[in-house]
Amino acid sequence: MTVIELITCIRQHKKASLAILVLILLLGKIASVPFGMHGVGTFEGERNDILRRRNYLIGKLATTPQKIMEEMPGGMDEQFQGEWAMYSCSMFAVALTNIARIYPEQKEVSLGYIDKLIEIVMSSEIREYDRKRWWGEDALASFEDNHSHVSYLSILAWMMGEYKELGGGNKYDELYGRICYTLNRRMLDAETLNLPTYPDEPIYVPDMLVAVVALSHYAKFNHGSCQDTVNRWIEKAKTDWLDAKTGLLVSFLDNTGAQQIDGMPVKGSYSALNCYYLSLIDRSFAKEQYERLKQYFYQSSPISGLKEYHERNCPFGMDADAGPIIANLSPSGTAFMVGSATCFGDTDVRRSLIKTAEIAGSTFYGFTENHYLLANFALVGEAVMLAMRTNVEWI
Hints:
By secondary structure, the protein is mostly helical. The protein has 15 helices and 8 strands. The N and C termini lie far apart (about 75 Å).
């Protein structure tokens, strides 16, 4: 055998070995999925996994603002790091509230950690991204002004609503009221009731829905205050902001907040998030939107999940909102869809979505903690999935 033949043989052997290794890993992953799905279908069956995932997030998020920022993916723009940190905390707070409803003995534990998370989101480190986008104006010092700050303030108010829902005291009442009255005033001052997330950008409908959720929850605890604004926004959504092709709430509005941007289709990730938020404030509208979401975006095979685009196939791609798209599926959209499937008791779809999450995320099982291995790269995804799979009805 010549040297060239020997080298060729070695290379072919290495390629064959690599192919065999990949196949073994793939088969091992497929074989492990049934173990990861054990108990899925009832909250009693899922109890251990849910509480172990909670434990993992406690260790990652109930810490300090500095440590949370360090957990965010490196190389990202500071704005996205701040947003992801805030979303991670807020979704975990929602998950803690849901867990306390499902397992009432966990109420005091949940309440204590929600308190901690609110303090973290109020920190200067977390709100810095919003300050920079609003020309150096601090959202918590802007109540007499007219700049929007809608995303940051809405999420903080939503978290305070979760705290009140679990019977939290009056620690945040004054600030909670100031935030909600400010959001309410700014929405009423806007001709279309819509506010920009950042200057000179279109209206992101999911961000506006967080404001509507926050005001709806505030109204529940404060004799209906701000409820009229909630009702007005929902009515306009039903009549003015539905996509003509799908009947789904649009993903973006122009910077006036009046109409859908020409040529901008609805996105699976945004639509799934819209459905989730609607499930917290208007169950009938949310159910209608969920059925349309399934009609246009749900894919049952070869892998179950939510497509990012309903009018075209995308076997492989990257989307700024959805993340890496594989076999048409939107990672963030698939996760958000779990929230509506849980709320409406769509057991088969919920189970198929959680199975897809298990295939993609690969759960790591510790002594007291479980988490998807992907959480090492995107902690926010772990928090979102826990919030979505525990989204029991509370309205």
